[in-house]
Write a structure and sequence with these properties.
The protein is of the alpha+beta class. It has 2 domains: 55 residues; 79 residues, Nuclear Transport Factor 2, Chain: A (Roll). A hairpin with a 2-residue loop joins β3 and β4. The N terminus is likely disordered.
Amino acid sequence: MGFCQNGADFGFFHYFQCSNFKKIVYSDTFKIYKINNKFEKREQKILLVVLSLILLIFLSFDYSSENKLPDLFKKDYMKKNNIEILKLSTELLNNKNISSSKRFLYNFTYIINKDNKEFVCSANKVEINKIQDEFIITKYKEVCQEK
């Protein structure tokens, strides 16, 4: 199954690979070339700057999309347990277990400070469901041990 069909990805790379974005850039570049039968240095610089700006904008968007669900987990954990997560690492399991744009599975490993002691905790197979524009974290089991 190809990248565009699996639906598990969201963000820039999905847009870039599955839209007509490439066709537009290629066709405009081809039109400029056909009009002059060559690229002048000024046109090359403009094209390079425009493509660089587009790439930077979409990469920053993709980075923010990538951290959306882990940040949601941090906020949810703070709300439920009144304990702040100091450090968090994540592993997205969608590519390994499921292929969905509405259901995400994560393994979270994090460090918390509880009763003036640091604990390393893990919550495996945390399911996050998307309903329209809202993400809902289902119940999960956390395992903690003192650092």
